[in-house]
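ARCHIVE CARD
Drawer: 12
Card no.: 0347
Subject: one protein chain, sequence and derived structure
Cross-reference: see card 0346
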Amino acid sequence: MTTLAQRLKTVQTQITDAAKSCQRNPADVLLLAVSKTQTVEAVKAVAEAGQTRFGENYLQDALPKIKSLSKAGFNLEWHYIGPIQSNKTRAIAEHFQWVHSVDRLKIAERLSEQRPTHLPPLKICIQVNIGNEAQKAGVSAEELTPLATAINLLPQLELHGLMAIPPAASNTQQQHAAFAALRQLFEKLPATRTLDTLSMGMSNDLDAAIAEGATMVRVGTAIFGPRNK
């Protein structure tokens, strides 16, 4: 196997082991390979090893990969996980299947309006600023339910859950606390048939995230190695 395929397998094994250690079904935890700044060739190698879900932060970096790999015959699922500017919503609505980083109603409305009607509804996670950090995007706990309620009324969107990037933690206890807080917010959301996703956990803290209920973990470095600048 190539190094990338080996790394992917190692991460998949880690997810399986983490799920089993807390009596969860490993099939209930999906892996999102974060391919931001990585080359088309690197993404292709990981896709050839069986990975189908990829996360991107930068639109200008993502679109050439999406188009190239689609043209090459890969049927991949693309998740936008970065900050969203208003002038980028149309391209995101047209080329991605998921968006994890919605934190304003204006952005949600634009995504719904600009989602092509021949495509399925865009799957949405609301980003929560779980640590109330000034430098991070995301809604506060108080803003969450009103935004979720409004998104549920938009015709071309499906609200699937929540995403967070917790504050840097110095120990596993802090990791667990942040992820538990997001899970508790998720459990208080107005119930809908599509509410099924907790997007939390990355290369360094996915074990704690899975123990606290993550259904999707976002892993980049552990698969691809250091990011390209």
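Annotation on reverse: The domain at 3-224 is CATH 3.20.20.10 (TIM Barrel). The chain has one domain: 3-224.
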